[in-house]
Amino acid sequence: MDILDQLRFNLPEEIKQANWTVSEQQRLIAEAHGEAGRIVSRANEKAEAIVSEQEVLRRAERQAQQVVRDAQNRADQIVREAESYAFEQLQNLEAQLNRTLATVRRGVEALQPAGGPASPARTAVAAGSADEEAQEG
Fold first, then answer.
1. Domain positions in the chain
2. CB-based contacts of 12-21 (< 8 A; 24+ apart in sequence)
3. Spatial contact of 13 and 110, defined as CB atoms under 8 Å apart
4. Model confidence over 13-52: pLDDT tens digits?
5. What is the separation of C-alpha 113 from the centre of its chain, rounded to a whole number of angstroms?
6. Hey, how many other C-beta atoms are within 10 angstroms of the C-beta on 71?
7. How far, in Å, CA of 68 to CA of 75, rounded?
8. What is the C-alpha separation between 117 and 20, in angstroms, rounded?
9. Are the beta carbons of 40 and 69 closer than 8 angstroms?
10. CA distances from 28 to 50, 67, 87 (A)
11. 3-state secondary structure of 136
C-alpha cells in the first residue's frame, strides 16, 4: 500500500511540473517574439523620423537594418535559451517519471504472487514493460 500512496502523492506533482515547463516555454517564446516586435517597431519609427538629406537617409536605413538584425539575433538567442531551458526541464521530468515508473514496476512485482499464474492485467502490464524496455534499448 505504501507504493500506491507514494504514486498518488508524486504523480500529480510531476504532471503539474510538466505543465508548468510547457507553459513556461510558451511564455518565454511569446516574450521573445514580443520583444523582437517592439525592437523592430522602434527601429521602424526611428527610420521614419529621419527625412533629411540623402546621406542621412542612407545612414538611417543602414542603422535600421542593423537594429532589425540585432533584434532578430536577440530574439533567436532568447528562443534558443527558452528551448534549452525547456529541454533541460523535460529531461528532469523524464528522469523523475522513470523513477516513478521504476517504483510502479517494483510495486507490481511486490504484489505479484510468487510462482502463481499472473492475472491478465499483470500480464498486460508486464508485456507493456517489455515493449518499453525494448524500445529504450
1. 2-136
2. 14/93, 14/96, 14/97, 14/100, 17/89, 17/93, 17/96, 18/90, 18/93, 21/86, 21/89, 21/90, 21/93
3. no
4. 777 788 888 888 898 889 888 988 998 888 888 766 655 5
5. 40
6. 19
7. 10
8. 42
9. no
10. 33, 21, 13
11. helix
